[in-house]
Amino acid sequence: MSRLNTGGLIDRARPLKFTFDGKQYSGFEGDTLAAALLANDVRLVARSFKYHRPRGILTAGTEEPNALVTLREGARAEPNSKATAVPLYDGLVASSQNRWPSLGFDLLALNQLASPIFVAGFYYKTFMRPAALWEKLYEPLIRRAAGLGALSGLPDPDSYDRKHAFCDLLVIGAGPAGLAAALTAGRSGLRVIVADDDMAMGGHLLKERSEIAGATGADWAAGVVEELASYPNVTLLPRTGVFGVYDGHEYGAVERVADHLPEPLPGQPRQRLWKIVAKHALLASGAIERPLIFPGNDRPGVMMASAVSAYLNRFAVAPGKKAVIFTSCDTGWQTALDLQAAGIGVAAVVDTRAQKPALADRLDLSDSVVALQGAIVDIKGSKSVKGATIRDGSGKETTVACDLVAMSGGWNPAIGLGSNFGNRPVWSEELNAFLLDKTPPDFSSIGSAAGRMSLTSALGDGIRAATEVVQQMGKSPAEMAIADVAETGGTNENMLWVPSGIEGKAFVDFQNDVTASDIKLAASEGFVSIEHLKRYTTMGMATDQGKLSQINGHGLLAEETKKTIAEAGTIMSRPPYTPIALGVVAGHHRGEHFRPVRHTASHDWAAENGAAFVDVGQWKRAQWFVQPGETEWRTSVDREVNATRGGVGICDVSTLGKIDVLGPDAATLLDRLYANMFSTLPVGRARYGLMLREDGFVMDDGTATRFAEDKYYVTTTTANAARVMQHIDFARQVIWPELDVQATSVTEQWATYSIAGPQSRAVLQALLPDIDLANEAFKFMAAGEYRWRGTKIRLFRVSFSGELAYEISIGANRGRQLLEAIMAAGAPFGIVPYGTEALGVMRIEKGHPAGNEMNGQTTAGDLGMGRMLSTKKDFVGRAMAQRPGLTDPGRMSLVGLKPLDHAATLRAGAHLLAKGAEPKAANVQGRVTSAAFSPTLGHSIALALVTGGQERIGEEMMLNDIVRGSDVPVEICDAVFVDPAGERLRG
Amino acid sequence: MRIPCPYCGDRDSQEFVYRGDAAPVRPSDPAEETEFFDYVYLRENPAGPIDELWYHAQGCRNWITLTRDTRDHAISAARLTSEGKSA
Ligand SMILES: [Zn+2]
């Protein structure tokens, strides 16, 4: 065990059991998985991506590139979880990835021997020729070898939540700068949200030994968090990573609500997506320590110096027994102090600089090798570090035994989120790091994210920035003072050390196995732009997105190309800053909640009466009604059609779009919207209308009814209801705002039933005995407003089926009641309910174009309605409909088709060919848009668009269905199959 | 993204339907076919501020003219389109 006896922020009273690769271990509440593994002396935790090299734990945070594990089992298994960011819980199960057959003995580690072929650009070099081998050999090979963890392939058993929030100030990161800013803003009364990725707030205060106002940094942080939690105007979001900055001051964040539990509590979401709108945001995301580039820098036991300090101070874990420090800044020396304070020997301190820092005087270096202007040139050991070969300033090499190497190459401000808006960061010569220049609006970085690295300056910066925000928002800032800050005393010198003359594998990007020599090779091959280098070597393209590797890669490239880093520039980051689960983006929108469901007033009645439902947009519509004994859908549909045409049927048509158009200029507006005339429509009459788009093609059809001089009621197809509403609003607000007319959707307000068939009048007369429905009194296309049992109804004599038919509308809340009354009144006449399928069959029998025909590519002329285009007025689409291409007589236009052999089936989508023509695209002269079996005629019928259209009636053609493999000889006929004279609907 | 609806206030862009360039004015009929062609098909696509039409479909159902900078999506003005061209 490597657990220290005292110290740390763990709860020793709460031991937790967990397993890694099937072996049981224990840790404490407050551990991360990585801390607990180190405490149990587990060093080797992963295999690398390309070379399958043994890897250990490199960091103590979300930037971890090596220690990626599969967390949990079964459907909850989550690959590529960072052990350094997974909070330990009792019963945690994790396993290593990318190894076969085992982590200790991985056969694919042989890839290392083949490493010459895995160099920069190896995908482009190795797998190119012969091309024939790509699909058979290369791709399967790459897919098996590449990739880290595997998905379970099972449905995600957890649920995900979504929340929207608004605040004055969003603080991203709760380290010293973030906490100081949040405290200032919270005390000043701003609405503050503090989001922090870690399970505990405090950032580096939890990892370093410091003192603020007489308390340890960690205790000070806990006190601030407690105070913030007491403010109603402050929301604290621990375990919440802000992953993106979006337009309009919006921020995306994921709260890991239950990831620290074995599984979510009943009713609890696993994660929650936050969409936060913040008037101002402060990026207090801290800084990420840079690795150093040296051979063997990826061996288990080589760690970031700050991570070593974090394991010692926060988790009371000794990551080794004998350490070598390799540093280019004071951080390494601070870690040496932490190690000695924990009683761990420091075998050597190697500093790339020429001078020891003042801090060194506080170390006992009597037994240590100190090498200035030095470097580590080799690491002994493979699955764990056994020693380090050090070259000092004079070139002398010494090998020191050790089991831990703590490295520090300085610090990079964590500015990724700030570059989300395409703001390219700029190189600071002073800091030797990239800083934000431009930022998203009302967004600023503070503390070490802004290059203010010391604790004192970070705290001060937080107070200063929040005070400014408070003032901007017109409030008076609280007086703030944070006294007595004791730091370890390092300077902020931040060198970027780039080695020269490296031999052996020195890793730059640990996760994608990109080495220093790959970068040099890429540069020598001409990939000298930062963006090219990234793609050619894959540096920075792994799940860590180059958080550790980027700057070192830049440094190497700059060295090779003899350019400065400032000249070479850097890349910008895109959301997500850290990977997020797709499930949390989908949220509740999955399964039956994928989109809203709309039910008509008769839905439950239909369900009780055997309806099979079909999705029509968001609506559920009854497709047909199954009667006892009916096993085939066609049986039900044929029965419904025959019963309607032979007697009476009723269909819920409430899903049609309904729009009230009101005002003195209502008639003028409709004249301009419809191709045909509506100002001449008498009150109490309905008229079929056709709307074009401004480009001259058909948009939608429906009826408009005039209930008063200034009161029209417009119906649309179900599919286009929203589009037509938008179109009407566009016409009256944008094109002709001078018209005095209002329009409002009343689709949901009315339940509407179509009653069709020769007995429909009798049924309605029984229902409405006080209204004279005789043919002369209530003619075809008549309409009126009446009352039924005290409630207003609208009655229309319109027909879609071609039969004598009526539509009756009532307030949706009484829809079911009316339907049941009609069914009762119709019972003596044998009324049947029919669904959308029978409705469709009857409209095809009548040759009515619907969505299949009004597909956005057809003109009024194509659909046989050319004569509806008024020549007496302007209307939307009039001018463009006259273009030669739209009036060409050679265009495909609407006809009917019937099979020569009445037993044959016609299918939608099939192509029409001249008899004997070869079935190829050049010979296609038309296609079937709608097809159905007509129970009225006793055979299959179809509507089709064919070149020449009406001219070809009587011609025989071949209907070729290449997809389903059939050839059916057909005859072109008129599109109206039933009652072409229209006598039934006028009778 | 947030859209400042003059009627509803700042609202989520998901409530809106985007249409595009607000500049084209429908020619009053009768007009040359080319005028209608320009109106239907030709749009400016500047890198910079542009007046464009948005429809608050899931809100007040007003058509709104926004002045938006295509380079950074900054919205500098918003008004009801029915109230005319000038702000
Ligand atoms: Zn609005």
| CATH class wording of chain B | Alpha Beta
- Terminal CA distance of chain A: 96 Å
- CATH homology-level superfamily of chain B: Folate-binding superfamily
Give the second-level CATH assignment, the architecture of the largest domain in chain A.
Answer: 3-Layer(bba) Sandwich
Order of the strands making up the biggest sheet of chain B = 3-4-5-6
- Oligomeric state of this protein: heterodimer
Q: Which ions, cofactors or small ligands are bound in this entry?
A: zinc ion
Supply the CATH superfamily name of the largest domain in chain A.
Answer: FAD/NAD(P)-binding domain
What Rg of chain B do the Cα atoms give?
A: 14 Å
Assign an overall shape of chain B. Answer: globular
Return the structural class of chain A.
Answer: alpha+beta
What do these coordinates show?
The complex is a heterodimer of chains A (987) and B (87). Chain A has 987 residues and is α+β, with helices and mostly antiparallel strands. In chain B, the strands form 2 sheets. In chain B, strands 3-4-5-6 form a 4-stranded antiparallel beta sheet, with no helix packed on it. With 87 residues, chain B is mainly β. In chain B, 17% of the residues are buried. Chain B starts with a strand and ends in a 7-residue tail after the last strand. The radius of gyration of chain B is 14 Å and the shape is globular. Chain B has one helix at 33-41, and strands at residues 2-5, 9-12, 17-21, 49-55, 63-69, 75-80. Chain B has one domain: Folate-binding fold (2-Layer Sandwich). Chain B has 1 helix and 6 strands; from the N terminus they run βββαβββ. Chains A and B meet through helix 17 and helix 21 of A and helix 1 of B. The complex binds zinc ion.
